[in-house]
Design a protein that fits this description.
Mean pLDDT: 87
Number of strands: 9
Strand order of the largest sheet: 1-2-7-8-9
CATH class of the largest domain: Mainly Alpha
Order of helices and strands: HEEEHHHHHEEHHHHEEEE
Helix content: 40-55%
Strand content: 5-15%
Largest sheet: 5 strands, antiparallel
CATH architecture of the largest domain: Orthogonal Bundle
CATH superfamily of the largest domain: EpsJ-like
CATH topology of the largest domain: Ribonucleotide Reductase Protein R1, domain 1
Number of domains: 3
Oligomer: single chain
Number of helices: 10
Shape: extended
Structural class: alpha/beta
Radius of gyration: 32 Å
């Protein structure tokens, strides 16, 4: 008589069951993390697309601002140059004379360049460094390889990669000044130094837009008198770039306005004028937290004539 075998049930031990549970939780965690990563990547893509779309729109607005600034029938301070265009959209256009800035190439026509030394002194650069900075700028543009007393030529800079080798030609952009030896010291002292220089301005400053620093350094005006003029030229609302800004017909009018003497007036007439051309037009468009700026240097367009652009920068 045969004996039936009784089936046996193999029981899973507690260690195996716990491992399976941990594996399941691990898989769920990986899946959740993967879903989270995918969602974030999609959000990033959408954010990038939204940002680029807003930048394109902001650029179009900024271009409109440049067109407004160039229009022969729109004067400085016209309300059209400051607009709110719907929710979270603004357009601000400034029009000022490029002659508010010093033409660096003209300043370096004299090796000693007293006007450069004056502004560096005004900015409180150490006396021992001022001569080196001015001479290094001069050596960068002069036509030879002879080092000035405190300057720097090729042999002095070959092992100093942070500085630019002299090109023996005029600067074609203010940005080229950045890597001349010593200009890093200027940048550390005055981060906005670029706004004081140009390669397009004329031989005289425009008295209507020039900064207080140039009035003191180049015009040799006492600082309180220079500040008095800057306040006066902004008109009754004390805001620059508005319709009530004071405009002079000639520099001699400053004598009665500021109560200055003949000597000070003569010093101003030597380096200052009322000529605004060429113009720097800056258009800043903002949509939410996205901004786009276009800055151009140009001659003011006359009716029926296209403007002549000297510089065009976007950021």
């Amino acid at each position: 008589m045969s004996r039936k075998s009784t089936p046996t049930t193999k029981r899973i031990g507690p260690d195996f069951a716990g491992s399976a549970l941990l594996l399941t939780l691990w898989c769920v965690g990986i899946l959740s993390l993967s879903i989270f990563v995918v969602v974030r990547l999609v959000e990033y893509d959408l954010d990038d697309e939204r940002f680029e779309s807003m930048r394109v729109e902001a650029r179009e607005m900024a271009l409109t601002g440049i067109a407004l600034g160039l229009h022969p029938d729109i004067d400085r301070g016209d309300p059209l140059l400051r607009q709110t265009l719907g929710e979270n959209r603004t357009l601000v256009v400034s029009v000022e004379s490029e002659n508010a800035r010093l033409n660096i190439n003209q300043a370096l026509e004299q090796p000693s360049s007293p006007i450069l030394k004056a502004i560096l002194t005004r900015w409180e650069l150490p006396d021992r460094d001022i001569g080196s900075i001015v001479d290094s700028l001069y050596d960068w543009v002069d036509q030879d390889d002879l080092r000035s007393l405190n300057g720097a030529e090729v042999e002095d800079l070959q092992d100093q990669s942070r500085y630019s080798i002299p090109q023996n030609r005029p600067f074609i952009a203010v940005s080229e000044m950045e890597r001349v030896r010593g200009m890093d010291q200027v940048a550390a002292q005055v981060p906005q130094w670029r706004k004081y220089f140009s390669v397009f301005s004329g031989d005289k400053f425009d008295i209507h837009d020039v900064s207080l620093d140039w009035l003191v350094a180049a015009g040799r005006l006492p600082e309180p008198v220079a500040a008095q003029w800057i306040e006066a030229r902004t008109g009754a609302d004390k805001l620059a770039g508005t319709m009530d800004d004071l405009r002079l017909s000639n520099i001699a009018e400053l004598r009665s306005l500021l109560g200055i003497g003949e000597t000070q007036l003569a010093a101003l007439q030597e380096l200052f004028d009322v000529n605004a051309d060429p113009l720097r037009i800056t258009s800043l468009a903002t949509i939410g937290d996205v901004s786009y700026a276009i800055s151009v240097v140009t001659t003011k367009s006359e009716a029926g004539e296209p403007p002549q652009f000297m510089s065009w920068e976007e950021e």
